[in-house]
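Is adenosine monophosphate placement plausible here? Inputs below.
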Amino acid sequence: MTYKSIKGTKDLLPSESWKWQWVEGKIRDVMLVFNFREIRTPVFEETPLFSRSIGELTDIVSKEMYSFQDRSGDSLSLRPEMTASVVRAYIQHSLGEQFPLVKVYYIGPMFRQERPQAGRLRQFHQFGAEAIGAQNPTLDVEMIALAIAVYEALGLKKTALRINSVGCENCRPAYKELLKQSLWKVRDELSLDSQRRLESNPLRVLDSKAEEDQRAIVGIPLLRDHLCADCLAHINGVIDGLKDLGISYEEDGRLVRGLDYYTKTAFEIISKDLGAQDALTGGGRYDLLTEELGGKRTPGIGFAAGMERLMTVLEKQKLIPDGDKRITLFIAALGREAQRWAMKQALELRRRGLSVELDFLDRSLKSQMREADRLQARYVMIVGENEMMNRTVTVKTMETGEQKSVAFADVTSFVDTSGND
Ligand code: AMP
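Reply from A.M.:
I modeled the complex. C-alpha coordinates:
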Protein backbone atom coordinates (compact mmCIF):
# COMPACT_ATOMS: atom_id res chain seq x y z
CA MET A 1 0.00 0.00 0.00
CA THR A 2 1.45 3.38 -0.96
CA TYR A 3 -0.10 6.74 -0.30
CA LYS A 4 -0.46 9.80 -2.44
CA SER A 5 -1.24 13.40 -1.63
CA ILE A 6 -4.89 14.31 -2.03
CA LYS A 7 -6.15 15.55 -5.39
CA GLY A 8 -5.84 19.32 -5.58
CA THR A 9 -3.07 19.51 -2.99
CA LYS A 10 0.63 19.86 -3.59
CA ASP A 11 3.87 19.04 -1.84
CA LEU A 12 6.29 21.90 -1.74
CA LEU A 13 9.65 20.20 -2.12
CA PRO A 14 13.02 21.64 -1.07
CA SER A 15 13.78 22.45 -4.69
CA GLU A 16 10.83 24.89 -4.64
CA SER A 17 10.38 25.92 -1.02
CA TRP A 18 13.27 28.39 -1.07
CA LYS A 19 11.46 30.30 -3.83
CA TRP A 20 8.39 30.61 -1.64
CA GLN A 21 10.55 31.80 1.22
CA TRP A 22 12.06 34.45 -1.00
CA VAL A 23 8.62 35.67 -2.10
CA GLU A 24 7.25 35.56 1.44
CA GLY A 25 10.22 37.62 2.60
CA LYS A 26 9.39 40.32 0.05
CA ILE A 27 5.73 40.30 1.11
CA ARG A 28 6.67 40.67 4.78
CA ASP A 29 9.04 43.56 4.00
CA VAL A 30 6.33 45.48 2.18
CA MET A 31 3.72 44.76 4.85
CA LEU A 32 6.05 46.13 7.47
CA VAL A 33 6.74 49.42 5.69
CA PHE A 34 2.98 49.91 5.32
CA ASN A 35 2.72 49.22 9.07
CA PHE A 36 0.72 45.99 8.77
CA ARG A 37 1.48 43.34 11.43
CA GLU A 38 1.07 39.62 11.02
CA ILE A 39 -1.92 37.74 12.39
CA ARG A 40 -2.04 33.92 12.57
CA THR A 41 -5.37 32.30 13.28
CA PRO A 42 -6.26 28.57 13.42
CA VAL A 43 -6.89 26.78 10.12
CA PHE A 44 -10.26 25.55 11.36
CA GLU A 45 -13.16 27.38 12.91
CA GLU A 46 -16.80 26.77 13.78
CA THR A 47 -18.69 26.26 10.52
CA PRO A 48 -21.30 29.00 11.19
CA LEU A 49 -18.54 31.62 11.25
CA PHE A 50 -18.02 31.03 7.55
CA SER A 51 -21.60 30.32 6.50
CA ARG A 52 -22.75 33.45 8.31
CA SER A 53 -20.12 35.77 6.90
CA ILE A 54 -19.44 34.43 3.42
CA GLY A 55 -23.11 33.58 2.86
CA GLU A 56 -25.06 30.29 2.80
CA LEU A 57 -25.83 30.66 -0.88
CA THR A 58 -22.33 31.35 -2.12
CA ASP A 59 -20.42 28.65 -3.98
CA ILE A 60 -17.78 28.59 -1.28
CA VAL A 61 -20.21 27.71 1.50
CA SER A 62 -22.75 25.68 -0.41
CA LYS A 63 -20.35 23.56 -2.46
CA GLU A 64 -16.72 23.98 -1.54
CA MET A 65 -16.20 24.05 2.19
CA TYR A 66 -14.40 21.22 3.95
CA SER A 67 -16.79 20.78 6.85
CA PHE A 68 -16.79 17.92 9.32
CA GLN A 69 -18.07 16.94 12.70
CA ASP A 70 -15.44 16.50 15.33
CA ARG A 71 -15.76 13.81 17.99
CA SER A 72 -17.91 15.98 20.18
CA GLY A 73 -20.36 16.54 17.34
CA ASP A 74 -19.45 20.19 16.63
CA SER A 75 -19.47 21.24 13.01
CA LEU A 76 -16.06 22.61 12.08
CA SER A 77 -14.67 23.81 8.77
CA LEU A 78 -11.25 24.32 7.30
CA ARG A 79 -10.99 28.00 6.49
CA PRO A 80 -11.82 28.77 2.86
CA GLU A 81 -10.54 32.35 3.28
CA MET A 82 -9.20 34.53 6.07
CA THR A 83 -11.39 37.59 6.45
CA ALA A 84 -13.98 35.84 8.63
CA SER A 85 -11.26 34.50 10.94
CA VAL A 86 -9.57 37.88 11.19
CA VAL A 87 -12.84 39.62 12.03
CA ARG A 88 -13.65 36.88 14.56
CA ALA A 89 -10.26 37.46 16.22
CA TYR A 90 -10.78 41.24 16.05
CA ILE A 91 -14.04 40.91 17.98
CA GLN A 92 -12.88 38.16 20.35
CA HIS A 93 -9.80 40.08 21.48
CA SER A 94 -11.44 43.54 21.40
CA LEU A 95 -8.67 44.75 19.13
CA GLY A 96 -10.75 47.78 18.19
CA GLU A 97 -10.58 49.01 21.79
CA GLN A 98 -6.80 48.87 21.77
CA PHE A 99 -6.21 50.32 18.33
CA PRO A 100 -8.54 52.70 16.48
CA LEU A 101 -7.40 51.19 13.20
CA VAL A 102 -6.23 47.59 13.10
CA LYS A 103 -3.92 46.73 10.20
CA VAL A 104 -2.98 43.07 9.87
CA TYR A 105 -1.66 40.71 7.23
CA TYR A 106 -1.39 36.96 6.84
CA ILE A 107 0.20 34.29 4.69
CA GLY A 108 -1.20 30.79 4.90
CA PRO A 109 -3.16 27.85 3.49
CA MET A 110 -6.87 28.00 2.58
CA PHE A 111 -9.11 25.07 1.66
CA ARG A 112 -11.87 24.78 -0.92
CA GLN A 113 -13.17 21.63 -2.54
CA GLU A 114 -13.14 23.00 -6.06
CA ARG A 115 -12.91 21.04 -9.25
CA PRO A 116 -9.13 20.75 -9.64
CA GLN A 117 -7.98 22.55 -12.77
CA ALA A 118 -5.16 24.84 -13.80
CA GLY A 119 -4.95 27.65 -11.26
CA ARG A 120 -7.42 26.01 -8.86
CA LEU A 121 -6.27 23.92 -5.97
CA ARG A 122 -8.04 22.47 -2.96
CA GLN A 123 -5.35 23.54 -0.56
CA PHE A 124 -3.96 26.78 -1.87
CA HIS A 125 -2.16 29.64 -0.20
CA GLN A 126 -3.01 33.25 0.11
CA PHE A 127 -1.33 36.32 1.42
CA GLY A 128 -3.62 39.16 2.30
CA ALA A 129 -4.26 42.13 4.49
CA GLU A 130 -7.18 43.55 6.44
CA ALA A 131 -7.66 47.04 7.85
CA ILE A 132 -10.53 47.41 10.30
CA GLY A 133 -11.78 50.67 11.78
CA ALA A 134 -12.11 53.31 9.07
CA GLN A 135 -14.66 54.25 6.46
CA ASN A 136 -12.50 56.80 4.69
CA PRO A 137 -11.84 56.09 0.98
CA THR A 138 -8.15 56.83 1.60
CA LEU A 139 -8.02 53.48 3.40
CA ASP A 140 -9.30 51.75 0.25
CA VAL A 141 -6.52 53.47 -1.66
CA GLU A 142 -3.99 52.39 0.97
CA MET A 143 -5.05 48.74 0.55
CA ILE A 144 -4.86 48.86 -3.22
CA ALA A 145 -1.49 50.63 -3.05
CA LEU A 146 -0.29 47.94 -0.64
CA ALA A 147 -1.24 45.06 -2.94
CA ILE A 148 0.40 46.82 -5.87
CA ALA A 149 3.52 47.60 -3.81
CA VAL A 150 3.96 43.88 -3.11
CA TYR A 151 3.81 43.08 -6.83
CA GLU A 152 6.14 45.98 -7.56
CA ALA A 153 8.66 44.76 -5.01
CA LEU A 154 8.65 41.41 -6.79
CA GLY A 155 9.16 43.12 -10.15
CA LEU A 156 5.88 41.82 -11.57
CA LYS A 157 4.85 43.16 -14.95
CA LYS A 158 1.61 43.13 -16.91
CA THR A 159 -0.83 43.45 -14.04
CA ALA A 160 -4.04 45.44 -14.20
CA LEU A 161 -6.33 46.83 -11.54
CA ARG A 162 -10.10 46.62 -11.93
CA ILE A 163 -12.38 48.44 -9.59
CA ASN A 164 -16.09 48.75 -8.94
CA SER A 165 -18.58 49.54 -6.22
CA VAL A 166 -20.99 46.81 -5.13
CA GLY A 167 -23.11 49.32 -3.20
CA CYS A 168 -24.42 49.02 0.32
CA GLU A 169 -27.52 47.90 2.19
CA ASN A 170 -29.28 51.09 1.02
CA CYS A 171 -28.80 50.82 -2.71
CA ARG A 172 -27.99 47.17 -3.45
CA PRO A 173 -31.39 45.54 -2.63
CA ALA A 174 -33.30 47.71 -5.11
CA TYR A 175 -30.63 47.17 -7.74
CA LYS A 176 -30.70 43.41 -7.13
CA GLU A 177 -34.43 43.41 -7.88
CA LEU A 178 -33.88 45.42 -11.03
CA LEU A 179 -31.10 43.06 -12.06
CA LYS A 180 -33.25 40.00 -11.44
CA GLN A 181 -36.02 41.44 -13.60
CA SER A 182 -33.59 42.18 -16.42
CA LEU A 183 -32.00 38.76 -16.15
CA TRP A 184 -35.39 37.02 -16.25
CA LYS A 185 -35.91 38.53 -19.68
CA VAL A 186 -32.81 36.76 -21.00
CA ARG A 187 -33.06 33.72 -18.77
CA ASP A 188 -33.11 31.17 -21.58
CA GLU A 189 -29.90 32.51 -23.04
CA LEU A 190 -28.00 32.16 -19.77
CA SER A 191 -25.77 29.26 -18.78
CA LEU A 192 -27.28 26.70 -16.42
CA ASP A 193 -25.10 27.95 -13.59
CA SER A 194 -26.33 31.49 -14.10
CA GLN A 195 -29.96 30.36 -14.36
CA ARG A 196 -29.50 28.74 -10.99
CA ARG A 197 -27.90 31.87 -9.54
CA LEU A 198 -30.52 34.18 -10.95
CA GLU A 199 -32.65 34.01 -7.83
CA SER A 200 -30.10 33.22 -5.16
CA ASN A 201 -27.13 35.34 -6.16
CA PRO A 202 -27.92 37.40 -9.28
CA LEU A 203 -24.85 39.62 -8.91
CA ARG A 204 -22.63 36.64 -9.65
CA VAL A 205 -24.22 36.31 -13.08
CA LEU A 206 -22.48 39.56 -13.98
CA ASP A 207 -18.98 38.20 -13.57
CA SER A 208 -19.68 34.79 -15.11
CA LYS A 209 -16.93 33.79 -17.50
CA ALA A 210 -19.30 31.74 -19.70
CA GLU A 211 -19.52 33.23 -23.18
CA GLU A 212 -23.27 32.80 -23.48
CA ASP A 213 -23.69 34.80 -20.26
CA GLN A 214 -21.42 37.57 -21.46
CA ARG A 215 -23.46 37.78 -24.67
CA ALA A 216 -26.80 37.68 -22.87
CA ILE A 217 -26.02 40.42 -20.36
CA VAL A 218 -24.89 43.10 -22.79
CA GLY A 219 -26.88 46.19 -21.92
CA ILE A 220 -28.04 44.94 -18.55
CA PRO A 221 -28.28 47.74 -15.94
CA LEU A 222 -25.14 48.10 -13.86
CA LEU A 223 -25.00 48.98 -10.19
CA ARG A 224 -22.75 51.97 -10.74
CA ASP A 225 -25.69 53.76 -12.33
CA HIS A 226 -27.85 52.96 -9.30
CA LEU A 227 -25.57 53.73 -6.38
CA CYS A 228 -26.81 55.85 -3.49
CA ALA A 229 -25.14 59.23 -2.93
CA ASP A 230 -22.94 57.85 -0.17
CA CYS A 231 -21.61 54.96 -2.26
CA LEU A 232 -21.10 57.23 -5.25
CA ALA A 233 -19.10 59.74 -3.18
CA HIS A 234 -17.07 56.88 -1.77
CA ILE A 235 -16.07 55.31 -5.07
CA ASN A 236 -15.26 58.73 -6.48
CA GLY A 237 -13.05 59.34 -3.45
CA VAL A 238 -11.22 56.10 -4.09
CA ILE A 239 -10.71 56.95 -7.73
CA ASP A 240 -9.39 60.42 -6.89
CA GLY A 241 -6.95 58.81 -4.48
CA LEU A 242 -5.75 56.33 -7.11
CA LYS A 243 -5.19 59.21 -9.52
CA ASP A 244 -3.19 61.10 -6.87
CA LEU A 245 -0.88 58.10 -6.55
CA GLY A 246 -0.62 57.59 -10.29
CA ILE A 247 -2.14 54.11 -10.04
CA SER A 248 -3.82 53.14 -13.27
CA TYR A 249 -7.16 51.41 -13.00
CA GLU A 250 -10.04 50.25 -15.08
CA GLU A 251 -13.60 50.72 -13.89
CA ASP A 252 -15.43 47.46 -14.40
CA GLY A 253 -19.15 47.69 -13.73
CA ARG A 254 -19.47 43.91 -13.85
CA LEU A 255 -16.91 43.21 -11.18
CA VAL A 256 -18.57 41.64 -8.18
CA ARG A 257 -17.15 39.39 -5.52
CA GLY A 258 -18.17 35.84 -4.72
CA LEU A 259 -18.76 36.61 -1.07
CA ASP A 260 -21.83 38.22 0.44
CA TYR A 261 -20.17 40.51 2.91
CA TYR A 262 -18.70 43.03 0.51
CA THR A 263 -19.98 46.61 0.45
CA LYS A 264 -18.88 49.57 -1.64
CA THR A 265 -15.40 49.12 -3.11
CA ALA A 266 -14.56 45.83 -4.82
CA PHE A 267 -11.31 45.38 -6.69
CA GLU A 268 -9.28 42.81 -8.47
CA ILE A 269 -5.72 42.71 -9.71
CA ILE A 270 -5.24 40.43 -12.65
CA SER A 271 -2.21 39.20 -14.49
CA LYS A 272 -2.17 39.10 -18.25
CA ASP A 273 0.21 36.16 -17.94
CA LEU A 274 -2.39 33.85 -16.41
CA GLY A 275 -4.95 31.89 -18.37
CA ALA A 276 -8.68 31.78 -17.65
CA GLN A 277 -8.12 32.06 -13.89
CA ASP A 278 -6.38 35.40 -14.24
CA ALA A 279 -7.18 36.94 -10.84
CA LEU A 280 -4.13 37.41 -8.67
CA THR A 281 -5.86 39.42 -5.97
CA GLY A 282 -9.43 40.03 -4.93
CA GLY A 283 -10.46 42.52 -2.33
CA GLY A 284 -13.06 44.89 -1.07
CA ARG A 285 -14.77 46.70 1.71
CA TYR A 286 -16.93 44.94 4.30
CA ASP A 287 -18.58 47.58 6.44
CA LEU A 288 -21.29 45.27 7.81
CA LEU A 289 -19.28 42.17 8.57
CA THR A 290 -18.14 42.99 12.10
CA GLU A 291 -21.73 43.58 13.14
CA GLU A 292 -22.90 40.48 11.29
CA LEU A 293 -20.47 38.44 13.37
CA GLY A 294 -21.67 39.86 16.67
CA GLY A 295 -19.34 42.82 17.13
CA LYS A 296 -19.87 46.54 17.06
CA ARG A 297 -20.48 47.95 13.62
CA THR A 298 -16.99 48.75 12.33
CA PRO A 299 -16.03 49.36 8.72
CA GLY A 300 -13.19 47.35 7.22
CA ILE A 301 -11.47 46.51 3.97
CA GLY A 302 -9.13 43.76 2.86
CA PHE A 303 -7.71 41.75 0.03
CA ALA A 304 -6.52 38.21 -0.55
CA ALA A 305 -4.00 37.14 -3.14
CA GLY A 306 -3.23 33.67 -4.41
CA MET A 307 0.35 32.52 -3.82
CA GLU A 308 0.35 29.68 -6.36
CA ARG A 309 -0.83 31.97 -9.13
CA LEU A 310 1.74 34.55 -8.10
CA MET A 311 4.47 31.90 -8.27
CA THR A 312 3.29 30.88 -11.74
CA VAL A 313 3.56 34.44 -13.01
CA LEU A 314 6.91 35.05 -11.30
CA GLU A 315 8.32 31.92 -12.95
CA LYS A 316 6.90 32.93 -16.30
CA GLN A 317 8.41 36.39 -16.05
CA LYS A 318 11.69 34.91 -14.75
CA LEU A 319 11.67 37.08 -11.66
CA ILE A 320 12.90 34.61 -9.09
CA PRO A 321 16.64 35.06 -8.67
CA ASP A 322 18.89 32.04 -8.57
CA GLY A 323 19.00 31.14 -4.92
CA ASP A 324 22.47 30.73 -3.50
CA LYS A 325 22.08 27.23 -2.15
CA ARG A 326 25.83 26.58 -1.83
CA ILE A 327 27.21 25.39 1.43
CA THR A 328 30.45 26.79 2.79
CA LEU A 329 32.21 23.68 3.93
CA PHE A 330 32.04 19.93 3.52
CA ILE A 331 34.03 17.89 6.01
CA ALA A 332 35.11 14.63 4.47
CA ALA A 333 35.98 12.36 7.35
CA LEU A 334 37.35 8.82 7.15
CA GLY A 335 37.18 6.53 10.12
CA ARG A 336 35.44 6.67 13.47
CA GLU A 337 37.86 9.05 15.19
CA ALA A 338 37.84 11.48 12.31
CA GLN A 339 34.03 11.39 12.17
CA ARG A 340 33.81 12.30 15.86
CA TRP A 341 36.23 15.18 15.35
CA ALA A 342 34.26 16.29 12.29
CA MET A 343 30.97 16.35 14.20
CA LYS A 344 32.49 18.54 16.90
CA GLN A 345 34.16 20.85 14.40
CA ALA A 346 30.98 21.14 12.33
CA LEU A 347 28.92 22.14 15.35
CA GLU A 348 31.41 24.80 16.32
CA LEU A 349 31.47 26.30 12.84
CA ARG A 350 27.69 26.08 12.51
CA ARG A 351 27.37 27.98 15.77
CA ARG A 352 29.37 30.71 14.08
CA GLY A 353 26.82 30.76 11.28
CA LEU A 354 28.71 28.81 8.62
CA SER A 355 26.82 26.22 6.62
CA VAL A 356 28.59 22.92 7.07
CA GLU A 357 27.77 19.43 5.85
CA LEU A 358 29.44 16.12 6.53
CA ASP A 359 29.09 12.49 5.63
CA PHE A 360 26.65 10.23 7.45
CA LEU A 361 26.81 7.31 5.09
CA ASP A 362 30.35 6.02 5.67
CA ARG A 363 31.23 6.83 2.10
CA SER A 364 34.67 6.53 0.53
CA LEU A 365 36.76 9.68 0.17
CA LYS A 366 36.03 9.72 -3.54
CA SER A 367 32.31 9.63 -3.07
CA GLN A 368 32.43 12.20 -0.27
CA MET A 369 34.32 14.52 -2.64
CA ARG A 370 31.62 13.91 -5.24
CA GLU A 371 28.97 14.84 -2.68
CA ALA A 372 30.90 18.03 -1.80
CA ASP A 373 30.92 18.89 -5.50
CA ARG A 374 27.19 18.25 -5.82
CA LEU A 375 26.56 20.58 -2.90
CA GLN A 376 28.88 23.15 -4.48
CA ALA A 377 30.83 23.45 -1.24
CA ARG A 378 33.33 26.29 -1.27
CA TYR A 379 35.80 24.34 0.87
CA VAL A 380 36.34 20.70 1.65
CA MET A 381 38.17 19.65 4.75
CA ILE A 382 39.70 16.20 4.61
CA VAL A 383 40.35 14.31 7.84
CA GLY A 384 41.66 10.76 7.84
CA GLU A 385 43.87 8.69 10.11
CA ASN A 386 47.04 10.60 9.18
CA GLU A 387 45.43 13.94 9.80
CA MET A 388 44.15 12.75 13.17
CA MET A 389 47.64 11.70 14.09
CA ASN A 390 49.24 14.97 12.98
CA ARG A 391 46.39 17.09 14.38
CA THR A 392 46.07 18.82 10.99
CA VAL A 393 43.49 18.84 8.24
CA THR A 394 43.77 19.31 4.53
CA VAL A 395 41.59 22.17 3.35
CA LYS A 396 40.82 22.34 -0.34
CA THR A 397 39.44 25.51 -1.92
CA MET A 398 37.15 24.04 -4.54
CA GLU A 399 37.21 26.94 -6.98
CA THR A 400 41.00 27.02 -7.35
CA GLY A 401 41.80 23.44 -6.40
CA GLU A 402 44.41 24.81 -3.99
CA GLN A 403 45.14 22.62 -0.93
CA LYS A 404 46.53 23.67 2.41
CA SER A 405 47.43 21.87 5.56
CA VAL A 406 45.89 23.59 8.57
CA ALA A 407 46.50 22.74 12.21
CA PHE A 408 43.40 21.64 14.19
CA ALA A 409 43.85 24.64 16.44
CA ASP A 410 43.65 27.03 13.46
CA VAL A 411 40.73 25.44 11.61
CA THR A 412 38.04 27.71 13.02
CA SER A 413 39.84 30.92 12.25
CA PHE A 414 40.90 29.66 8.81
CA VAL A 415 37.32 28.97 7.73
CA ASP A 416 36.00 31.93 9.64
CA THR A 417 38.12 34.45 7.80
CA SER A 418 37.31 32.80 4.48
CA GLY A 419 33.71 33.21 5.48
CA ASN A 420 30.25 32.47 4.25
CA ASP A 421 30.63 34.85 1.29
P1 AMP B 1 -11.04 34.83 -3.35
O1 AMP B 1 -10.87 34.61 -1.86
O2 AMP B 1 -11.90 33.79 -3.99
O3 AMP B 1 -11.39 36.22 -3.69
O4 AMP B 1 -9.61 34.57 -3.97
C1 AMP B 1 -8.56 35.48 -3.85
C2 AMP B 1 -7.39 34.96 -4.64
O5 AMP B 1 -6.99 33.69 -4.14
C3 AMP B 1 -7.71 34.68 -6.10
O6 AMP B 1 -7.56 35.85 -6.84
C4 AMP B 1 -6.69 33.63 -6.46
O7 AMP B 1 -5.45 34.23 -6.75
C5 AMP B 1 -6.57 32.83 -5.19
N1 AMP B 1 -7.43 31.62 -5.22
C6 AMP B 1 -8.73 31.52 -4.90
N2 AMP B 1 -9.17 30.26 -5.01
C7 AMP B 1 -8.12 29.52 -5.40
C8 AMP B 1 -7.91 28.14 -5.66
N3 AMP B 1 -8.88 27.24 -5.54
N4 AMP B 1 -6.67 27.74 -6.05
C9 AMP B 1 -5.67 28.62 -6.16
N5 AMP B 1 -5.79 29.93 -5.91
C10 AMP B 1 -6.99 30.40 -5.54
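Short version: The two ends are 46 Å apart (CA to CA).
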